[in-house]
Every structure is written in C-alpha cells, then in structure tokens.
Amino acid sequence: MTDELELKLALTPADAARVPHLGLIRGLRCGEARSRHLISTYYDTPDLALRRSGMALRIRHDGDGYVQTLKAPAAAKGKHGGLQHMREAETRLSEPVPDLSHLDADLRGFFAADGVGAALRPVFTTTIERTEIPLAVRGGTIELALDQGEVAANGATVPLSEVEFELKAGAPDALHQAARMLTGHVDARLQTRSKAARGYDLFTGDVPAPVKAPKPALTPGMTVAEAFERHAAACLHQIRANIEAVVAGDDPEGVHKLRVGLRRLRAMLDAFEPAIDPGRYAWLRSELRWFQQELGPAREWDVFIAETLAPLRAHVSANGALDEFAATAETLRGEAYARARAAVATGRATGTLLALEAWLGTGAWRPAARGNDVGAADVTAYARETLDTRWKKLRKLGRKHDRLDAAKLHRLRIRGKKLRYTGEAFASLFRAKHTEPCLNRVEALQETLGSLNDAATAERLLAEAHPRLAAASEDGLRTADAATAAVRGWLAAQVDRDTRQLGAAWAAVADAPKFWRKKPAKA
Fold first, then answer.
1. What is each CA distance from 358 to 80, 179, 240, 341, 493, in whole angstroms?
2. Are 199 and 151 in contact (CB under 8 A)?
3. CA–CA separation, 330 vs 150, rounded Å?
4. Exposed e or buried b per residue across 273-308, where buried means at least 16 C-beta atoms within 10 angstroms of its C-beta
5. Residue 370 has what pLDDT?
6. How confident is the model at residue 213, as a pLDDT?
7. How far apart are CA 205 and CA 47, in angstroms?
8. DSSP percent split of the chain into helix, strand, coil, nearest 5
9. What is the DSSP code (8-state) at residue 168?
10. Structural element, H or E, at residue 248
C-alpha cells in the first residue's frame, strides 16, 4: 500500500470551469493536462463494516478498464494536520468484481473475518468528469484533479464539484500553498469529507453532524510553542469539522460550534501573542474576527428565537402579533444562515484557515528573530503570568459591576470569557480540585453577563424585524408595535432577574481560589 496525501476544496460549477484557464494554473503547470470520464462503484457489507472501519473500496471504470482501489486510515493519522491522509492499494482488474487477493496480509485478514469479503455488495456510485493537471509548487509536484459530476445512491443523487490537490513529490506544505493561491482567484470552501463519506451519507440518509473537538491536555515541561500549536490545531479541527454542518443548515449547533472554534482560536492567539510573529498575529486576528462576524447574525437569531421568542409565546395565550413576528424572525434567520453559508465558501475564509494550517505545519507562525524566544519558555510559568494578567483586568472592571452601563458590561463579559478560555487552555497544568471551582464560577458569571448581552442583542434584532413586519400588510405597523412591546416587556423582566443575580455571581468569582497560584500538577 502507498500513502495518499491530499487536500480538497469545494467550489461552484461555474468557478470550477474557470480553474484550468486561470493564469495561475497555466503558470504552475509542469506537464500535459488530461481529461477522463470516471464511473466508480463503492462496495460494502449490508451492515457497512468497511465504513465503520474507516475504509472505502471502489471499482472504477476509467475508459481503459477497471481499477480496484481500497483506502484505509493511515497509521500516523493526524500527523499532517487538516490534510486527508490515507493508505491506498490499487489493483487492475479484468472485470468489475472485487478481488482481495492482492491486498496486504492484515487487510486480507480483515476481509476474511466474519465473512466480510463474501458479503460485499454495491452501495453507491460516483460519475465524474475529471481534468488532471500536474503542477510544480515549492519544489514539489502536485496533481490537481478537477472533478465535476454526481454521487448516486438509492435512486437519489447529489452534485459534486471540487478540486483535489494530491501530493506526488515534495513537502506537504506545497498542498496548502497551491490551495491558498487558488483561493485568491476563486471562492471555495474546505471539503473535509471524502467522496466515499458523501456517498455513505446519501445511502443512509445521514447529514453532517456538528462536532465538538476535545480540549488538548498540556503537560508540565512543555514549551509555550508546543502548547500553542496543540491548542491552535484543536481549534482548527473544530472549525473544519463543522463547515459541512453549516452548509447543510439543518442544525443550529453547526453554526454555534464553528463560532466556538473561532472564538477559542482568537482567544488562543491573544493568550500566546508574545510568542507569535507580529505580522501574522495581526493578520490572523483581523481575518478571524471578520469570519466570526459573518456567522454572528445566524447565531443571534438562533438564540433570540429559542431563548426569548419561544418561551414568551409558550407563556402567553394565543397571540396573532407574536405569531406573525415569529414568521418574520424565521425569514430573517434564513437570510442570516445564507450569509453564514456564503462566508464558509469564500476564498477569504478558506485562505485564512489554509494559511494557519500551513504555518502550524512549518513553524512559520513563530517570529523570525529568536533572541528572546518566548515560544521556548516553560509553559507553566507562562500560564501563571498570563492568567494573573487576565484576572487583574477582569477584577478591575468587575469591582464596579453595579455601576456599569451596557457597553461596559459587554466588556466585562469579554474579559470573563478570555479568562475562562485561557484558564481552560492551561487547566491541565494544574490540579483539577483547584481549577474546577474557579472556572465553574467564571462560567456562571459569563452566563449571567451573556444573558444580559442577549437582551441587548434582542433590542437590535427587534429594530431589524420591526420595519420588515410593518411593511408586510396594511395592518403590519400595528402588529409590529404590539409584538415589539410584548418582547420588550419579557426582556425587561429578564434583565431585572440577571441584574439581581450579577452581584452574587461576581462575588463568587472574586472569592474563588486562583488555581494558577497553587502548586502545579505533577509531570
């Protein structure tokens, strides 16, 4: 078996048609392009044993005959960041029937066990028009495969339009370089799922599910640079893993978890700023802020509808004004989701993620001058200093919590969020019996401040929805006024409740043991 390392981007058919003719591609081309018509049939058992094992078995007709390909997870999974890394075995066949005799012994054993090989049957097919173009990038060779076609299963089809960069020779960062250059000319999104994964979803009726990435554990003795790379990679994983859930648009948790990934990544940039190249830090901070803002309206409407409008409507008797307002809110939420889906498919967002992935892989995120290399410092000492700074900034504003206006309460919430995210990032360096009481109290404060912020956001959403509802009918203005008044009354009660809770929440944080001042966990 051979290793296959590749990176995929999804793009519209119109942009896909432009790719071979771009000056960029013509300039990088290092050989003749060729086109092929490919029909592939994927096989599995009735209980999808291959899918459960992360494998994919296909037989492809490429015009010259039949080629069987088995893909299996690479042993060093995760070694190459966001790149798709698989082991691949190809066998030329005389007829379109699976032949497992040429596989490695361990794989033959897998197919022999429990009759897996004997139970194989067709599951889904892909039909593709492929254009292959060899490219020379950074001293390496890449095959660009432009695929347009469809996946078919159970009588249903979904379109397929993507560009695939496969490394043939050279360093893996050449893939990021080529893909990022392309996003400067066409809009595209990271395609995190293989054709096989999309075929299986069509076959089973599954949709991409939201993903929460686990927080990485740090260990005493680790350097600041190692800690940042571990956390940044985890954030990137959560962002990448939720792009398809946002595109599907069926589950609000997809947008939420993608935004959480972005927020945590921004928090990590701030927490590790002294160790990061200033130019790259400033650029990334700006681009990630823009990306998060593009997703913001979708999440704001989700929260408003679920946590303000739904409980209000359940609390009051039948109210025609609120019913009409709810319909308008759903329309505005749909528009916000369209904006979110458009954002993840922009070259700007995709190029930003590709850049950071490449920098993490090569270490290019670190400053060029290493005279006073913060990245080489011990992470535990750095964590103590950083958390102390975060706490002092929170305490300075928190002491005046009962005298803060809405803008300053928002600032207090952001400072609490930074302390919490940074505390969670460094928590594994300290003893859980010390970290949990402190972080739980900070989280409770953040929830109270978040509820107050949701009320302020709701006022802005009301201002957005009112004219839309007012213009909907002859009686629209009266309906809009009545619905707005009802929502504002509900919000006033919410603000009163949260304001009364704020004092106790702050007192609990102020009295919490500061775990970073305690003895660290044992190595």
1. 10, 11, 14, 24, 49
2. yes
3. 32
4. ebbbbeebbeebbebbeebbebbbbbbbbbbbbeeb
5. 65
6. 82
7. 15
8. 60, 20, 25
9. E
10. helix 224-248
d(CA 132, CA 136): 13
**With contact defined as beta carbons under 8 Å apart, do 1 and 88 qualify?**
yes
Q: Match 């599951």 to its residue by tokens.
A: 123
The full length of the chain comes to: 523
Alpha carbon separation from 120 to 1, 47, 90, 100 (Å, rounded): 21, 10, 17, 11
Residues with pLDDT less than 50, the chain = none
Residue 219 has a pLDDT of 93
pLDDT value at residue 79: 54
Distance CA 136, CA 146 (A): 16
Question: What whole-number distance in Å separates Cα of residue 292 and Cα of residue 315?
Answer: 33
Q: Which of 452, 469, 468 is nearest to 506 (CA)?
A: 452
- Tokens found for residue 362: 């090569």
| 351 close to 183: Cβ distance less than 8 angstroms | yes
**What backbone torsions phi and psi does residue 84 show, to the nearest 5 degrees?**
-80, 120
CA distances for 347 relative to 63, 136, 241, 251, angstroms: 34, 22, 18, 24
| Distance in angstroms (rounded) separating the CA atoms of residues 43 and 491 | 56
Task: Provide the pLDDT for residue 139.
Answer: 86
How far is Cα 182 from Cα 346, in angstroms, rounded to an integer? Answer: 12
Could you tell me the pTM of the whole model? 0.92
Tokens describing residue 267: 């928090």
Q: Could you read off the pLDDT of 124-135 as tens digits, one per residue?
A: 999 999 999 999
Compute the distance between CA of residue 16 and CA of residue 438 in angstroms, rounded to an integer: 51
> Which of 350, 31, 33, 295 is CA-nearest to residue 185?
350
Q: What gap in Å lies between CA 265 and CA 283, rounded to an integer?
A: 14
- The DSSP 8-state label assigned to residue 309 in this structure reads I
Contact 9, 103 (CB under 8 A): no
Query: Which two three-digit tokens encode residue 304?
Result: 């408003």
Which residues are CB-neighbours of 337 under 8 A, at least 6 positions away? 249, 255, 298
126 in Cβ contact with 160 (< 8 Å):
yes
Give the three-class secondary structure for 469. Answer: helix
pLDDT tens per residue, range 381-392: 999 999 999 999
Structure confidence at residue 200 (pLDDT): 97
Per-residue model confidence (pLDDT) at position 496: 95
Residue whose entry in the numeric block shows the structure tokens 């590709």: 354
- Burial class (CB within 10 angstroms; exposed 0-12, middle 13-18, buried 19+) of 130: middle
pLDDT of residue 3: 85
